[in-house]
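Posting this for the archive.
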Amino acid sequence: MISRIAEIRSEAAAAIAAAGSSEELEGLRVRYLGRKAELPGVLRKISELPPEERGKVGGAANRARKELEELLGARAESLDASELDSKLAGDRLDVTLPGAPPHPVGHAHLVARTQRTIEDAMVGMGYTVAEGPEIEHDYYNFTALNHPPGHPARQLQDTFYVQSHPEVLLRTHTSPMQVRAMETQPPPIFVVVPGKVYRRDSDATHSPMFHQMEALAIAEGITLADLKGTLLTLARALFGETREVRLRPHYFPFTEPSVEVDVSCFQCEGTGALPDGSRCNICKGQGWIEILGAGMVDPNVLGFVEQYGYDAERVQGFAYGLGIERVAMLRHGVPDLRRFFDNDLRMLEQFA
Protein backbone atom coordinates (compact mmCIF):
# COMPACT_ATOMS: atom_id res chain seq x y z
CA MET A 1 0.00 0.00 0.00
CA ILE A 2 2.83 2.39 0.85
CA SER A 3 4.46 1.76 -2.56
CA ARG A 4 1.14 2.56 -4.29
CA ILE A 5 0.89 5.82 -2.36
CA ALA A 6 4.39 6.70 -3.58
CA GLU A 7 3.38 5.93 -7.16
CA ILE A 8 0.28 8.13 -6.87
CA ARG A 9 2.36 10.97 -5.39
CA SER A 10 5.02 10.71 -8.13
CA GLU A 11 2.45 10.49 -10.94
CA ALA A 12 0.39 13.41 -9.58
CA ALA A 13 3.48 15.59 -9.01
CA ALA A 14 4.59 15.10 -12.62
CA ALA A 15 1.09 15.86 -13.95
CA ILE A 16 0.80 19.01 -11.82
CA ALA A 17 4.16 20.29 -13.00
CA ALA A 18 3.09 19.76 -16.63
CA ALA A 19 -0.36 21.40 -16.28
CA GLY A 20 -0.76 24.18 -18.85
CA SER A 21 -3.90 25.92 -17.62
CA SER A 22 -6.02 26.54 -14.57
CA GLU A 23 -8.75 24.34 -16.01
CA GLU A 24 -6.31 21.45 -16.51
CA LEU A 25 -4.97 21.95 -12.99
CA GLU A 26 -8.47 21.80 -11.52
CA GLY A 27 -9.01 18.51 -13.33
CA LEU A 28 -5.87 17.08 -11.74
CA ARG A 29 -7.00 18.22 -8.29
CA VAL A 30 -10.27 16.34 -8.74
CA ARG A 31 -8.46 13.35 -10.21
CA TYR A 32 -5.95 12.95 -7.36
CA LEU A 33 -7.58 14.61 -4.34
CA GLY A 34 -11.27 14.56 -5.14
CA ARG A 35 -13.82 12.54 -3.14
CA LYS A 36 -13.62 9.64 -5.57
CA ALA A 37 -9.84 9.79 -6.01
CA GLU A 38 -7.64 6.87 -4.98
CA LEU A 39 -5.54 8.67 -2.35
CA PRO A 40 -8.49 9.96 -0.28
CA GLY A 41 -9.96 6.47 -0.61
CA VAL A 42 -6.87 5.04 1.03
CA LEU A 43 -7.31 7.40 3.99
CA ARG A 44 -10.97 6.45 4.37
CA LYS A 45 -10.05 2.73 4.53
CA ILE A 46 -7.28 3.05 7.15
CA SER A 47 -9.57 1.51 9.76
CA GLU A 48 -9.84 -1.66 7.66
CA LEU A 49 -6.11 -2.27 7.75
CA PRO A 50 -4.33 -4.42 10.35
CA PRO A 51 -3.40 -2.30 13.42
CA GLU A 52 0.33 -2.58 12.75
CA GLU A 53 -0.05 -1.04 9.23
CA ARG A 54 -2.44 1.76 10.03
CA GLY A 55 0.19 4.22 11.27
CA LYS A 56 2.60 3.71 8.41
CA VAL A 57 -0.04 3.82 5.66
CA GLY A 58 -1.91 6.74 7.22
CA GLY A 59 1.25 8.77 7.68
CA ALA A 60 2.42 8.12 4.10
CA ALA A 61 -1.03 8.98 2.67
CA ASN A 62 -1.32 12.23 4.68
CA ARG A 63 2.19 13.31 3.70
CA ALA A 64 1.40 12.59 0.03
CA ARG A 65 -1.89 14.51 0.23
CA LYS A 66 -0.25 17.52 1.90
CA GLU A 67 2.58 17.53 -0.63
CA LEU A 68 0.13 17.39 -3.56
CA GLU A 69 -1.97 20.22 -2.08
CA GLU A 70 1.14 22.37 -1.80
CA LEU A 71 2.17 21.53 -5.38
CA LEU A 72 -1.35 22.38 -6.59
CA GLY A 73 -1.31 25.71 -4.75
CA ALA A 74 2.10 26.73 -6.08
CA ARG A 75 1.21 25.71 -9.64
CA ALA A 76 -2.11 27.57 -9.42
CA GLU A 77 -0.33 30.80 -8.45
CA SER A 78 2.11 30.41 -11.32
CA LEU A 79 -0.63 29.73 -13.86
CA ASP A 80 -2.79 32.60 -12.58
CA ALA A 81 0.10 35.04 -12.96
CA SER A 82 0.98 33.89 -16.49
CA GLU A 83 -2.67 33.87 -17.57
CA LEU A 84 -3.17 37.38 -16.17
CA ASP A 85 -0.11 38.63 -18.04
CA SER A 86 -1.40 37.03 -21.22
CA LYS A 87 -4.86 38.53 -20.75
CA LEU A 88 -3.47 41.98 -20.03
CA ALA A 89 -1.32 41.80 -23.16
CA GLY A 90 -4.29 40.71 -25.24
CA ASP A 91 -6.66 43.28 -23.75
CA ARG A 92 -4.21 46.18 -23.82
CA LEU A 93 -6.08 49.46 -24.34
CA ASP A 94 -4.59 52.46 -26.10
CA VAL A 95 -6.30 55.32 -24.27
CA THR A 96 -5.24 57.75 -27.01
CA LEU A 97 -7.50 56.04 -29.54
CA PRO A 98 -11.16 57.03 -29.99
CA GLY A 99 -13.86 54.80 -28.57
CA ALA A 100 -15.26 51.85 -30.48
CA PRO A 101 -17.43 53.04 -32.03
CA PRO A 102 -15.96 56.56 -31.73
CA HIS A 103 -18.06 58.74 -29.48
CA PRO A 104 -19.41 61.72 -31.41
CA VAL A 105 -17.84 64.97 -30.26
CA GLY A 106 -20.08 67.30 -32.24
CA HIS A 107 -19.98 68.79 -35.70
CA ALA A 108 -19.50 72.11 -37.44
CA HIS A 109 -22.42 74.54 -37.14
CA LEU A 110 -24.46 75.12 -40.29
CA VAL A 111 -23.26 78.70 -40.52
CA ALA A 112 -19.60 77.61 -40.27
CA ARG A 113 -20.12 74.85 -42.82
CA THR A 114 -21.79 77.25 -45.26
CA GLN A 115 -19.01 79.78 -44.78
CA ARG A 116 -16.37 77.15 -45.54
CA THR A 117 -18.24 76.07 -48.67
CA ILE A 118 -18.27 79.66 -49.94
CA GLU A 119 -14.60 80.13 -49.04
CA ASP A 120 -13.64 76.90 -50.83
CA ALA A 121 -15.47 78.01 -53.98
CA MET A 122 -13.82 81.44 -53.95
CA VAL A 123 -10.34 80.14 -53.13
CA GLY A 124 -10.77 77.75 -56.06
CA MET A 125 -11.18 80.83 -58.27
CA GLY A 126 -7.95 82.38 -56.99
CA TYR A 127 -9.19 84.51 -54.11
CA THR A 128 -7.54 84.76 -50.71
CA VAL A 129 -9.40 84.91 -47.41
CA ALA A 130 -8.94 88.04 -45.28
CA GLU A 131 -10.34 89.04 -41.89
CA GLY A 132 -10.88 92.42 -40.30
CA PRO A 133 -11.91 93.97 -36.97
CA GLU A 134 -15.52 93.75 -35.81
CA ILE A 135 -15.09 97.03 -33.89
CA GLU A 136 -14.59 99.48 -36.71
CA HIS A 137 -14.01 103.17 -37.41
CA ASP A 138 -16.74 105.23 -39.02
CA TYR A 139 -14.26 106.13 -41.77
CA TYR A 140 -13.81 102.55 -42.97
CA ASN A 141 -17.39 101.43 -42.34
CA PHE A 142 -19.07 104.39 -44.08
CA THR A 143 -17.03 107.34 -45.35
CA ALA A 144 -14.42 105.43 -47.38
CA LEU A 145 -17.24 103.37 -48.89
CA ASN A 146 -18.95 106.43 -50.36
CA HIS A 147 -21.24 106.97 -47.33
CA PRO A 148 -20.21 110.52 -46.33
CA PRO A 149 -21.62 111.95 -43.07
CA GLY A 150 -25.30 112.76 -43.49
CA HIS A 151 -25.75 110.34 -46.41
CA PRO A 152 -29.24 108.76 -46.21
CA ALA A 153 -27.82 105.29 -46.93
CA ARG A 154 -26.33 105.27 -43.42
CA GLN A 155 -29.85 105.00 -42.01
CA LEU A 156 -30.28 101.65 -43.78
CA GLN A 157 -27.39 100.27 -41.73
CA ASP A 158 -28.15 101.61 -38.28
CA THR A 159 -25.69 100.01 -35.89
CA PHE A 160 -24.24 100.17 -32.38
CA TYR A 161 -21.84 102.98 -31.45
CA VAL A 162 -19.40 103.37 -28.58
CA GLN A 163 -20.85 106.22 -26.54
CA SER A 164 -17.52 107.69 -25.43
CA HIS A 165 -16.09 107.45 -28.98
CA PRO A 166 -18.80 108.28 -31.54
CA GLU A 167 -16.47 107.47 -34.42
CA VAL A 168 -16.14 103.85 -33.21
CA LEU A 169 -18.90 101.34 -33.97
CA LEU A 170 -19.72 97.70 -34.54
CA ARG A 171 -19.30 97.17 -38.27
CA THR A 172 -22.48 96.80 -40.32
CA HIS A 173 -20.82 94.76 -43.08
CA THR A 174 -17.45 93.24 -43.87
CA SER A 175 -17.01 95.80 -46.67
CA PRO A 176 -14.62 97.96 -44.60
CA MET A 177 -12.00 95.35 -45.45
CA GLN A 178 -12.26 96.48 -49.09
CA VAL A 179 -10.43 99.69 -48.22
CA ARG A 180 -8.22 98.08 -45.56
CA ALA A 181 -7.11 95.36 -47.99
CA MET A 182 -6.38 97.85 -50.77
CA GLU A 183 -4.28 99.88 -48.34
CA THR A 184 -2.02 96.85 -47.81
CA GLN A 185 -1.26 96.00 -51.45
CA PRO A 186 -1.48 97.45 -54.95
CA PRO A 187 -3.72 95.92 -57.63
CA PRO A 188 -4.52 93.32 -58.71
CA ILE A 189 -6.37 92.16 -55.60
CA PHE A 190 -8.83 89.31 -55.15
CA VAL A 191 -10.07 88.77 -51.59
CA VAL A 192 -13.07 87.41 -49.74
CA VAL A 193 -13.85 88.59 -46.23
CA PRO A 194 -16.06 86.51 -43.91
CA GLY A 195 -17.09 87.61 -40.45
CA LYS A 196 -19.70 88.82 -37.98
CA VAL A 197 -21.55 92.07 -38.61
CA TYR A 198 -24.09 94.02 -36.53
CA ARG A 199 -27.28 95.93 -37.28
CA ARG A 200 -30.37 96.93 -35.34
CA ASP A 201 -32.65 94.29 -36.87
CA SER A 202 -34.40 91.35 -35.27
CA ASP A 203 -37.09 89.14 -36.84
CA ALA A 204 -37.43 85.78 -38.59
CA THR A 205 -35.03 86.81 -41.36
CA HIS A 206 -32.86 89.40 -39.57
CA SER A 207 -30.65 89.32 -36.51
CA PRO A 208 -28.72 92.02 -34.58
CA MET A 209 -25.64 89.89 -35.27
CA PHE A 210 -25.16 87.81 -38.38
CA HIS A 211 -22.40 86.63 -40.71
CA GLN A 212 -21.52 88.15 -44.04
CA MET A 213 -19.17 87.29 -46.87
CA GLU A 214 -17.70 90.16 -48.86
CA ALA A 215 -15.73 89.73 -52.08
CA LEU A 216 -13.55 92.26 -53.86
CA ALA A 217 -11.79 91.95 -57.22
CA ILE A 218 -9.75 94.84 -58.65
CA ALA A 219 -7.55 94.64 -61.74
CA GLU A 220 -7.25 95.99 -65.25
CA GLY A 221 -10.04 95.09 -67.66
CA ILE A 222 -12.52 93.59 -65.18
CA THR A 223 -16.13 93.94 -66.34
CA LEU A 224 -19.65 93.15 -65.20
CA ALA A 225 -19.38 89.92 -67.19
CA ASP A 226 -16.58 88.78 -64.87
CA LEU A 227 -18.84 89.46 -61.91
CA LYS A 228 -21.64 87.38 -63.40
CA GLY A 229 -19.29 84.50 -64.20
CA THR A 230 -17.92 84.53 -60.64
CA LEU A 231 -21.42 84.55 -59.15
CA LEU A 232 -22.54 81.75 -61.45
CA THR A 233 -19.64 79.56 -60.29
CA LEU A 234 -20.44 80.37 -56.66
CA ALA A 235 -24.18 79.68 -57.10
CA ARG A 236 -23.49 76.30 -58.65
CA ALA A 237 -21.10 75.39 -55.82
CA LEU A 238 -23.82 76.24 -53.29
CA PHE A 239 -27.03 75.12 -54.96
CA GLY A 240 -26.14 72.64 -57.71
CA GLU A 241 -24.60 72.52 -61.16
CA THR A 242 -27.84 73.33 -63.01
CA ARG A 243 -28.28 76.75 -61.39
CA GLU A 244 -28.39 80.00 -63.33
CA VAL A 245 -28.07 83.59 -62.11
CA ARG A 246 -29.63 86.85 -63.23
CA LEU A 247 -28.71 90.44 -62.43
CA ARG A 248 -31.31 93.15 -61.73
CA PRO A 249 -30.51 96.89 -61.54
CA HIS A 250 -30.37 98.24 -58.00
CA TYR A 251 -28.63 100.92 -55.94
CA PHE A 252 -25.75 100.60 -53.47
CA PRO A 253 -23.63 103.62 -52.45
CA PHE A 254 -20.29 101.90 -52.98
CA THR A 255 -20.92 100.27 -56.39
CA GLU A 256 -21.89 101.74 -59.75
CA PRO A 257 -23.62 100.15 -61.55
CA SER A 258 -25.22 98.04 -58.79
CA VAL A 259 -27.26 94.87 -59.14
CA GLU A 260 -29.38 92.50 -57.10
CA VAL A 261 -28.46 88.89 -57.86
CA ASP A 262 -31.00 86.07 -58.14
CA VAL A 263 -30.35 82.35 -58.48
CA SER A 264 -32.72 79.99 -60.27
CA CYS A 265 -34.78 78.02 -57.74
CA PHE A 266 -33.20 74.69 -56.88
CA GLN A 267 -36.47 73.15 -55.71
CA CYS A 268 -38.64 73.78 -58.78
CA GLU A 269 -35.71 74.12 -61.23
CA GLY A 270 -36.76 77.65 -62.06
CA THR A 271 -40.30 76.80 -63.17
CA GLY A 272 -42.07 78.25 -60.15
CA ALA A 273 -44.20 75.11 -59.79
CA LEU A 274 -43.71 71.81 -57.99
CA PRO A 275 -44.27 68.42 -59.68
CA ASP A 276 -47.82 68.26 -58.28
CA GLY A 277 -48.66 71.58 -59.91
CA SER A 278 -48.67 73.63 -56.71
CA ARG A 279 -46.72 76.87 -56.36
CA CYS A 280 -43.11 76.46 -55.20
CA ASN A 281 -42.92 77.55 -51.57
CA ILE A 282 -39.25 78.59 -51.76
CA CYS A 283 -39.31 80.98 -54.71
CA LYS A 284 -43.02 81.83 -54.25
CA GLY A 285 -43.73 80.81 -57.82
CA GLN A 286 -41.19 83.22 -59.31
CA GLY A 287 -38.57 80.65 -60.31
CA TRP A 288 -35.83 82.92 -58.89
CA ILE A 289 -34.47 83.54 -55.40
CA GLU A 290 -32.69 86.74 -54.40
CA ILE A 291 -29.42 85.89 -52.66
CA LEU A 292 -27.09 88.91 -52.64
CA GLY A 293 -26.17 92.40 -53.80
CA ALA A 294 -23.23 93.28 -56.01
CA GLY A 295 -21.85 95.75 -58.52
CA MET A 296 -18.82 97.43 -60.01
CA VAL A 297 -16.75 99.28 -57.43
CA ASP A 298 -17.61 102.98 -57.49
CA PRO A 299 -14.68 105.14 -58.65
CA ASN A 300 -15.25 107.30 -55.56
CA VAL A 301 -14.23 104.33 -53.40
CA LEU A 302 -11.04 103.89 -55.41
CA GLY A 303 -10.37 107.58 -54.83
CA PHE A 304 -9.79 106.89 -51.14
CA VAL A 305 -6.95 104.45 -51.99
CA GLU A 306 -5.60 106.10 -55.14
CA GLN A 307 -2.22 106.64 -53.48
CA TYR A 308 -1.88 102.84 -53.15
CA GLY A 309 -2.08 102.34 -56.93
CA TYR A 310 -5.83 102.22 -57.43
CA ASP A 311 -6.21 104.73 -60.26
CA ALA A 312 -9.83 104.62 -61.38
CA GLU A 313 -8.72 105.47 -64.93
CA ARG A 314 -6.54 102.34 -65.05
CA VAL A 315 -8.17 99.67 -62.89
CA GLN A 316 -11.68 98.72 -61.98
CA GLY A 317 -13.40 95.82 -60.32
CA PHE A 318 -16.43 94.43 -58.62
CA ALA A 319 -17.64 93.55 -55.15
CA TYR A 320 -20.47 91.54 -53.72
CA GLY A 321 -21.80 90.86 -50.25
CA LEU A 322 -24.05 88.05 -49.07
CA GLY A 323 -25.52 86.96 -45.76
CA ILE A 324 -24.16 83.53 -44.84
CA GLU A 325 -27.24 82.72 -42.73
CA ARG A 326 -29.43 83.54 -45.73
CA VAL A 327 -27.59 80.98 -47.85
CA ALA A 328 -27.65 78.40 -45.04
CA MET A 329 -31.40 78.87 -44.60
CA LEU A 330 -31.99 78.22 -48.30
CA ARG A 331 -29.63 75.25 -48.56
CA HIS A 332 -30.97 73.46 -45.49
CA GLY A 333 -34.60 74.58 -45.33
CA VAL A 334 -34.33 76.46 -42.03
CA PRO A 335 -37.43 78.71 -41.81
CA ASP A 336 -36.26 81.11 -39.09
CA LEU A 337 -32.82 82.71 -38.88
CA ARG A 338 -33.07 82.86 -35.11
CA ARG A 339 -32.85 79.06 -34.93
CA PHE A 340 -29.14 79.36 -35.73
CA PHE A 341 -28.54 81.12 -32.41
CA ASP A 342 -31.00 79.34 -30.09
CA ASN A 343 -28.58 76.45 -29.37
CA ASP A 344 -31.49 74.03 -29.55
CA LEU A 345 -29.94 70.58 -29.95
CA ARG A 346 -33.10 69.27 -31.61
CA MET A 347 -32.43 71.62 -34.48
CA LEU A 348 -28.63 71.40 -34.55
CA GLU A 349 -28.48 67.58 -34.47
CA GLN A 350 -30.57 67.36 -37.63
CA PHE A 351 -27.52 68.48 -39.57
CA ALA A 352 -24.83 66.30 -37.99
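Strands lie at 128-129, 135-137, 161-162, 165-170, 189-198, 209-219, 245-252, 255-264, 288-297, 316-323. Residues 2-90 form one domain.
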